[in-house]
Prior knowledge:
Number of helices: 4
Mean pLDDT: 85
Largest sheet: 6 strands, mixed
Strand content: 25-35%
Radius of gyration: 52 Å
Distance between the termini: 72 Å
Structural class: alpha+beta
Oligomer: single chain
Amino acid sequence: MDIKIEKKKGLRPKHFGYIAIGFILLFMGYKIAFGNSASTFRTEKEKLTVAKVSYGKFDDYITINGAVAPISTIYMDAYEGGRVTEKRIEEGAMVKKGDIILTLENRGLYEQILASENNLALKQNDLRSTKLTFDSRQVEGRKDLVSSKYELQKLQRNYEQNKTLYEDELISKEEYLTSKENYELSQQQYDIIKLQTDQDNVLRNTSLSELDADLARMKKTLSMVYERIDHLNVRAPADGQLGFLDAEIGQSIAQGQRIGQINVLTDYKIEADIDEHYIDRVKRDLTAILERNGKEYILRLRKVYPEVRNGKFRVDLVFVDQKPETIRSGQSYNIKLQLGASNEALLLPRGSFFQSTGGQWIFVVDASGDIAWKRPIRIGKQNSKYYELIEGLQAEEQVITSSYDSFGDAEKIILK
């Protein structure tokens, strides 16, 4: 008799194998379907800016913003310190060179002038007294020299006569020797007086020259002090406009303190700040163009300041020929600064993507228009509209040029 075998209910060992195989198949399917999700970003196409790469003329220029300033500014520093007693010209007024702008008062300087004048007067009196003394000694010395010479000549004749008489034995030897000794003594006395007179003349000339030099120095010092008095009148150093004046009546001004400036308005320049990215390419004598009311004005880059502040460096540009008739200090203009010659190149429109990528890569939209892939590129020069493409893209390809800040580390963008 057959026995009916009942099937055992529940999981058997072989079922566990089937379950494991099923999980493996599900995991593989998931990986196939969603394996790239970590590097994929989905967004609406309307929220992005898509531009086309083109081939054309690349103008190597940058657009900078500059402000009009006077061609030169002359600063006024106080030559002398003092208290402001009069303010003759206000800020913004036109001045001529030499116009008095401020008047200062300095009592200490006035006292110094009085002391210098007294010293000069004393030195002049000393010089006059010294001259009188030397003149008196010179006269006395000449009188003594004349008398000594007269006495010498008289004794010389007496000696020569006695010598002849003595040789003829007409006088005694004692008388002859006496006349000889008197003559020789007179000769020595004359030589001494002449030497003393010569030395007095040399001393007189030397002393008077030194006194004259001292007197001239004192006069020059006094004239310089008088100039300091004149410097209490603060004058305009050049024709122009009084830009600012930091002084009020009653205010004390220190020597060397900056109190104002004169803006020379014979011409104008434009001061502009440029991103430090271009510091190696911006040189003197580059050409720039300013457009105003449909007319172009040519400028020349006159000066490049080497200091970089807040990622920018400053340049000065001047007009080559004509300038706008209505130009005024403080006006702002957009200027095209030509950095090099134009050339044919692949052109990529500028966009916010550059801030995220540094120009190292970009998202390229495929032919379907539904997916954009990350691709490395190399960018050369740039102007206000385009980047010059060196490699990585072809003409007619479309790329996303808007910001990539929300894309994260995505390698693929799905456009909905």
